[in-house]
Amino acid sequence: MSIRNLTLPLAGSLLSLLLSVCIVWGQETPPAAAIIYSDAVAFQKAEEYGLAAEEWSKFLKRHGDDPLAEKARNNLAVCQLKLDKYADAAGNFYAILKNNPKSELREDALLNLGSTYYSWAKSGSPKMFDSAAKTFEQLYKEYPQGKNADQALYFAGESFYLSDQKDRSLGPYKALVEQFTQSPYRADGAYAWGVTLEELNKPTEAADVYSKFLAAFPDHDLAAEVRMRQAETVLNQNDFAKAEQMLTTVTADPQFPLIDHALYRLAFARLKQEKLADAGAIYAQIAADYPKSKYHDESMMLAGRCYYRAGDWTAAAKWLAAASKLSGDTGLEAAHWLCRVYLKTGKPQDAEKLAAAKVAAAQGSLQLVPLLIDQADALYDQPQRRGESVRLYQQIVTQHPKDPQAPQALYNGAFAALETQDHAAAARLAKTFVNQFPQHELLLDAKYVAAEGALQEKKYADAEKMFRELIAAGDKRPEKSKWRMRLALALLLQNKHQDEIAFLSPIAGTLTDPALKAEAFFLLGSSQFALDQFPAAQQSLIASLAAKADWRQADETLLLLSRAQHEQGDDTAAIATVRKMQKQLPNSPLADHAAYRLGEYYYAAGDFAKAAAEYQTVVDKFASSSLAPHALYGLGWSHIQQQQGKEARDAFSQLLTKHNDHQLAPQSLHARAVARRLSNDFAGAASDVDAYLKKSPQAADKADALYLKGLCLVGANDQAGAAAQFAALKKEFPKYRNDDKVLYELAWSLKASGEPAKATEAFASLAATHPQSSLAAEANYHVGEAAYDRQDYAAAQKAYAAALAAAQADDVGEKSAYKLGWAQYQQRDYAAASDAFAVQTSKYPNGPLAADASFMRGECLYKKDQFADALSAYGQVKSDRLSSNDMRDLWRLHAGQSAAQLKKWDESIRWMNELLTQSPDSPVAAEAQYELGWANYNQKKTDEAIQRFLAAADLSPGKTGARARFMLGELYFEKKDYEAAEGQFKRVVLGFGGAKSLDEVKPWQAKAAYELGRCNEVRIRDAIGAPKVRYVSEAKKYYGLVVSDYPQAAEAKLAASRLEAINKL
What we know:
Serine Threonine Protein Phosphatase 5, Tetratricopeptide repeat, elongated, TPR_rpt
């Protein structure tokens, strides 16, 4: 209780004493005594209590019988009290009372004696409070209406209170308040009365007293504290809302001396009303604004805790972090709650670090175990370190077995062990829990961990027994239905399918929890599926999904449902079911199973591309899955079915590398050989075949392997070996189902090994003995190719015609038709060839050689000088489908030349420009430039013609370049620019290898030499002097060159004639 520092009551005053002395001195007191008495009064008035006490003592010793002696003793006692000589003072006050029971000073002496005892008690002798209380009570008893009665009551109450007789203090306080309404002590008495009732746990009475105080003294300096205390009484009665109102009023005054306490209690009132954020804010205010308050440290921590409960992790972390730096339990408790904040906000590393740092300081503290649990929980929340949490939980239990949190730590350890699949540890810890804490509320939960551990350890019989016992013991537990599902699973895993069906059938439909109902029907469907009861299984699995479509094993349910549908032949529904699972549960842990099942279903349906895609998903995303080998095997065969050898090879190689001991490894050798052959890894394929043949396969499989071995030798370029292999195969298995293929490959091997005649014989044998084979047409085609190569075009024509007639495949048919046309073209039967190409384009309009055939029709017409028909045929060619750029360039060139032959100069220019645009580096670019020059020349576009002829000349070192130079000379000659013309003609004569030029160039050199003679001859007529002599000489030179070097040229006779004419000049 807060005791006010009221002035101790001392009866009487020195002034009144002096006055009384003056009155009596002349009557009874001798002068000597009066002098001592007067000095003592003076000393006492000057507060020289030591001197005064000496004088009073002297007076009493010398004049003890004087009428003023009693007053002198009273004053001496007062001085002794002032000098803290409580025993002496009490003795003198007591002497007055004892010596003269009817003394006029008795009332004051009683008051002063009580005050002396009171001061004595407060100075360090608390036993004297009892004497003070009794003295004050005696004073009030003797003088209930006396001048000191209110003081006597007040200090009697105070003395009882301070002597720990609070119940006895209530009477004096009550009497003071109720009887002395004008007393200056009444307010303090009312305050003390209320406080004492409050401390005696009489909140209702205390509240009543506080209400009376506030009614009587609303402006008293204790009014705010009383309001606070009144709120405390309301708090003690759990009326937190009312208390909050009252404390809000108190705390409105920031100058209130107990503001920190009032705020502290206001925060508590709000906390009790779950106004967590508001309470946190008040605690934070105390911590921020009142650093010297005794509530400061605790408020920091409590602010954090309130914000924690309110879910304001940022504010909680702020205050708990600050509080965690405090020393003692408050700092440790704050650290503990800060760890919980870190765990709540996904920062287990921070929680672990903080807890570990605080554990050393927490030794011996009540916060040690919470911090250790924080550390363990932080490890648990880090999946990669969850195993460490198990050890720490065990350590907590071992080192602190009596701690209230030990059972929780032990259970956490068992559960964490179960989570980390340390099932042995989970069972051991759960058993320890059952033995050490048989009455704990977590007992059945621990037994569940033990049963679950047994189930996970595949001790299914033990798990069955434990779950049956658990179900019996926890009949009223809400988890009972869940335990039933685990029991059903234990039965399923023991293949006790009939038992499980009998157990679940009656209860599955009665379950109210959707998830458990879904699980029940799933387990029921699983056993029905295992017993090949596919329609019943499908019905149960659909019921599972109907109960809860997103239950935790919905993915597994959908997969099993798809299998039930597949087993009933409904692959479309099976695929749709798996797709539904993938869409609804994209993050399912059974995603590998889903992809694999889709691969299987698509493969069975013959959709190998989709099957491969699904198998590849398993391989890429789920490499560690137990289904990975199966997926690789399915993937390989899916690629083989699509003739994707490299991809298939990689799949089988991966299977054999990563899963060499798997049951699929032997089959994968032969499969990889097939794949390697498809991917041109023939040596590797042959090696796989050899390994497979060592497995002693069946006859048909051996024949296949030998056939494949031959293909491998072909691929390894061991053509002779391959031929021998195929020959041996034909000999060992003459009725082999693939005999036509053997002859086909034998023929190719012979051909590749330099025995074309024997190869042709093999092709011919194939065509003769297997006329219905899909390879017969190609065999005839190769017979035709052999004849074509030896230029026996008539024989080739016959073979191609046979191939065309037998062709089942478009590629062979088209090639045969195309080469039939070429065989006729080579025999210069252009009409028949053109007809053959026309048949080809009609029968195979979209074939890869269709455009080539159209082009060749144009070529046949071109060869026959039927330029208009040729140009029309060229116009029907689809250039983007021609088989080569050279053919495409030749097509445009001949089309343009055909147009030029028809004097369609603009069309010719268009074709040539298109050629140069599309193929600027074409081998016929020079010819195209020449044709452009020729067309421009004929359109009288001399300058354009010159540029084109120059371009042609620059591009071609042969005939076309020579022609272009010649035409340039002609153009300059026509323009009478003889010097320029002469330069171009000289380039023809002297360039292009000169005398060693190509035969195709020589005619143009002859023409150019002749024109050089002309260039000089035409200038002779107008020249005089030395120029004329030179022109004559040059004309003779070049005419002579024509005659001597090009005697076969058409210009030779003309040159001789001109030479003869010049010689006559």
